[in-house]
Amino acid sequence: MPNYAVYTRTSAEHVVRVRNLSTSYPYDLLKLHFHKESLTGFPENTVFWINREGPSVGFALRSDTQNPPAQGGLK
After folding, report:
1. pTM above the 0.85 mark?
2. Edge-to-edge strand list for the sheet holding 15-22
3. pLDDT digit string (tens) for 17-68?
């Protein structure tokens, strides 16, 4: 099961890495139904936000599990 780090984004575009969790959310659905964005200055390099803009919660494949999951890979 892939492990994801949780991120939050404020209306001022401030991004915070909250905590780690394990989830069985299929990676391919994450790529299709969330909004992909690059991260800078955090252990993970890509986050998938629930909302395209404004306050949101996002999920990023943890940096210690960056090998592509069975369902697909980061593109």
Report:
1. no
2. 15-22, 3-9, 56-61, 46-49, 35-38
3. 987 565 666 667 777 778 999 999 999 999 999 999 999 999 888 877 655 4
Is residue 13 domain-resident? yes
Residue 48's DSSP bridge partners are 36, 59
Domain residue limits at 24: 3-65
Residue 72 lies in a domain: no
For the record, the structure tokens of 53 come out as 């803009």
Total number of domains in the chain: 1
Q: Write down the residue that tokens 């984004």 correspond to.
A: 9
Helix/strand/coil for 3:
strand
